[in-house]
Amino acid sequence: MFSEVERISKMQTREFLVSAPGKVILHGEHSVVHGKVALAVSVNLRTHLRLQATSSGDVRINLPNIDTFLSWEITALQPLLAGCKAEQDDLKEPDADLLKRLREFTGISDDSTDTRSMAVLAFLYMYLTVFAGSLASITVSVWSELPTGAGLGSSAAYNVCLSAALLSARGTISSTLTPQQESARWSKEELDLINRWAFMGEKIIHGNPSGVDNAVGTWGGFLRYHAGKITPLSWVPILRILLTNTKVPRSTKVLVSGVKDKINKFPSIMNPVLESISAVSCTCEQTLTEMAADGPSAEHYNILEELIDINQHHLNVMGVGHSSLDTLCRVTLARGLHSKLTGAGGGGCGITLLRPETDTSMIQSTIEELKACGFDCWETSIGAPGVQQHSSAALSQDILKILNSY
């Protein structure tokens, strides 16, 4: 029963620490579902995961962000794999029979979509399929800097971390970290495998995701999304931003449907808007490429700010603005800063570009005023690295304390 535990105990590494970033849409919200260009980018608010091999004979998952702490005996999980392949080679679609057995085993109904249930289901599915040949006794603890349900790719960061840690512990991909390193990345081929497994987790949680969120979590940096094709952009700069969560709830499905209705009602008006948004994405991509090649200049930042303003007006025309987002734009513009919504709109989150010379006191006063409006606000950056393996020295004491508490 413990052959896999014994195998892991012989490994040089019994513990794996990994992290993955969240994501924001820089430009191209809503137009992307109509075949236009969008730019997605990693945001340096990260999800952190610690996987520890044990000899306890059970599997544990600790998710303090959503107050979830569960464990299962391996002997109870083993029968769920009856009829499954030793390891899943086809990563196109989840095994419907295994998912059905997992729902029955956990008591998660078919129509349940709450964060806790979906996180547990994705974990158990990936654990069982990665370790199908011989189940391992492990403890997985996850803590995230990303708020859930805010359109920042929190579920994708979770799935990317799960994928990287489980595949590393299984020995399917290498443990890339050397004793001299604090953080390391995997090879392109291994990152591609991590991404494919993470996409499987996203399908379990969301049903029919685009694949953009898990790709950003895996590769990091900036990604171009067009007509179903995701292309990482090389040599792009890291930009400072304020990320603001208005905490106004919204339904992505309803907003997407509303945009579609408006396009069908006014095609001669709305189709040029979609084309213009796509052009904004392409111009932004060109500007970022120039910044990486030649170094950032004041004119580059002028262009980025103008594009932010143009795109925010476009999104208002499409009907996905909100008074809370108007407040964000008003508060920041009063200080010479430029903001736009990110994601589905209708509330949710917005980003504010910070120039290199932006004064620290101005940033702090802006954050305080936005918080006074009832918003959450973080100073962070976009263009951060994708999924990484870490030594304990790379993580803050606060994060280590949380991950080691369980």
Molecular structure report:
With 406 residues, the protein is an alpha+beta fold. It contains 13 helices and 13 strands. Strands 1, 2, 3, 4, 5, 6, 7, 8 and 13 form a 9-stranded mixed sheet that branches. A hairpin with a 2-residue loop joins strand 7 (222-226) and strand 8. Helix 4 (115-130) runs parallel beside helix 5 (154-170). It is globular. It starts with a helix and ends with a helix. 44% of the residues are buried. The model is unreliable at 1-12 (pLDDT under 50).
Any chance you could write out the topology, listing elements then pairs?
Elements: H1 3-9, E1 15-27, E2 38-53, E3 58-63, E4 68-73, H2 74-77, H3 96-106, H4 115-130, E5 138-144, H5 154-170, E6 183-184, H6 188-206, H7 212-219, E7 222-226, E8 229-233, E9 239-245, H8 252-265, H9 267-294, H10 298-317, H11 323-333, E10 338-342, E11 349-354, H12 360-372, E12 376-382, E13 388-390, H13 397-403
Helix pairs in contact: 4-5, 4-6, 5-6, 5-7, 6-7, 8-9, 9-10
Q: Into which percent range does the helicity of residues fall?
A: 40-55%
Give the helix tally. Answer: 13
In the predicted model, the low-confidence regions spanning at least 5 consecutive residues are 1-12
Structural class: alpha+beta
Give the SSE order as H and E letters. Answer: HEEEEHHHEHEHHEEEHHHHEEHEEH
Q: Strand count, sense and closure of the main sheet?
A: 9 strands, mixed
Number of DSSP strands? Answer: 13
Backbone shape: globular
Residue-averaged pLDDT, rounded? Answer: 91
